[in-house]
Amino acid sequence: MVLAEMGGRIIGALQNLSNATIIDEKVLTECLNEISRALMSADVQFKMIGTMQSNIKKTVNLDDRAAGHNKRKIIQQAVFNELCNMLDPGKPAFVPKKGKPNVIMFVGLQGSGKTTTCTKYAFNYQKKGWKPALVCADTFRAGAFDQLKQNATKAKIPFYGSYTETDPVKIAQEGVERFKKENCDLIIVDTSGRHKQEASLFEEMRQLAEVTNPDLVIFVMDSSIGQAAFDQAQAFKQSVAVGAVIVTKMDGHAKGGGALSAVSATKSPIIFLGTGEHMDEFEAFETKAFVSRLLG
Ligand code: GDP
C-alpha cells in the first residue's frame, strides 16, 4: 500500500532527524528532500512539493529560534501542518440543507467510481433521515442506467432514468423536476464520463449544470490516477463549478498524492472517501486523520 510506504519514508526522514545530534540547515534540508521524494513517489505534484518545502523552511526558521526549543518537534509539527494546509482549500464545501430540494451533480471520468459513489452518498444521507433520489443522466455508457437502478433498488432509493431517451440533458431536467415535486431533499444527478478528457464531455457537463442548476458539483476521482489528477480535476473545474471532491478506491493501491492535486486544481475540499465496492464503504473525510495516516 503506497500510503503506508509513503508514511514509512516520511517517518524514516523524521527519525533520521531525531538521530542527528545537531539540527542545522543541512540536516533539515536532507530531511525535507527525503520527505519530498516520498511525496513525489506518491504522485504529489512537483510544484506543490516545492511550495511545501519553502513553507516548512520558513516556519521552522532554525536560525531565529532560541536555543532550548525542541526543534525536532517544531519540524514534525511543520510537516504535519503543511500537509494539512495542502488539503485545505480555505473554504468549506456546500452543506445540503434538510427539507430543501438540494441538487447535487456528480462528475468524473468513466471508471472513477461515480455511479457507485452516487448511491453511497445517497445512502449515507438516507440513514440520517434524508429523502434522497437518484437521476441517471448517463446515456453514453451502455448499462449505466441498469447499474444505477440496481444500486438504488438495493438501497430503496427512488431513481429516474430512461432506456430509450438519448439526450442526457432532457433526462436530468425531467428527473430533477419530478423529484422536486415529490419533495425529495437530496436530488443526485449521475452524469456520464469518458475515458479521457474530451470537449464533448465538458460541453455536456456544462449543459447539465445549466438545466439542473446544482447546489453542489462533486468531482469524483479514482485515488490511483496519480499525476493525472491535477489536469483531470482542472478540466472539470473549467466547465462546471466543482465545489467538492470525493476520492474513491482508497482501499486499493491508493496514492494520497492525487487527492492533494485535486484539492489544488479545484480549490475545493475533499468531503468523503470511498473505501470499497459496498454501499457502506464510505467515510467522511477528516484532514488530520488523513494526514496522520499519510505519515504512518
Ligand atoms: P463510473 O464509471 O465512474 O460510474 O464508475 P463505477 O461506479 O461503475 O465504478 C467502477 C468500478 O469501481 C466498479 O467496479 C466499482 O465497484 C468500483 N469502485 C467504485 N468505488 C470503489 C471503491 O471505493 N473501492 C473499490 N475497491 N472499488 C470501487
TrEMBL record:
Residues 269-282 form the SRP54-type proteins GTP-binding domain. Coiled coil: none annotated. The keyword Endoplasmic reticulum applies. It catalyses: GTP + H2O = GDP + phosphate + H(+). One of its GO terms (biological process) is SRP-dependent cotranslational protein targeting to membrane, translocation. The keyword Ribonucleoprotein applies. It is found in: Cytoplasm; Endoplasmic reticulum. GO terms for molecular function: 7S RNA binding; endoplasmic reticulum signal peptide binding; GTP binding; GTPase activity. It comes from the Eukaryota. Keywords: Cytoplasm, Endoplasmic reticulum, GTP-binding, Hydrolase, Nucleotide-binding, Ribonucleoprotein, RNA-binding, Signal recognition particle. Component of a signal recognition particle (SRP) complex that consists of a 7SL RNA molecule of 300 nucleotides and six protein subunits: SRP72, SRP68, SRP54, SRP19, SRP14 and SRP9. Component of the signal recognition particle (SRP) complex, a ribonucleoprotein complex that mediates the cotranslational targeting of secretory and membrane proteins to the endoplasmic reticulum (ER). As part of the SRP complex, associates with the SRP receptor (SR) component SRPRA to target secretory proteins to the endoplasmic reticulum membrane. Binds to the signal sequence of presecretory proteins when they emerge from the ribosomes. Displays basal GTPase activity, and stimulates reciprocal GTPase activation of the SR subunit SRPRA. The M domain binds the 7SL RNA in presence of SRP19 and binds the signal sequence of presecretory proteins. The NG domain, also named G domain, is a special guanosine triphosphatase (GTPase) domain, which binds GTP and forms a guanosine 5'-triphosphate (GTP)-dependent complex with a homologous NG domain in the SRP receptor subunit SRPRA. The two NG domains undergo cooperative rearrangements upon their assembly, which culminate in the reciprocal activation of the GTPase activity of one another. SRP receptor compaction upon binding with cargo-loaded SRP and GTPase rearrangement drive SRP-mediated cotranslational protein translocation into the ER. Belongs to the GTP-binding SRP family. SRP54 subfamily. This is Signal recognition particle 54 kDa protein. The lineage of its organism: Eukaryota, Viridiplantae, Streptophyta, Embryophyta, Bryophyta. The chain holds residues 1 to 296 of 498 of the full protein.
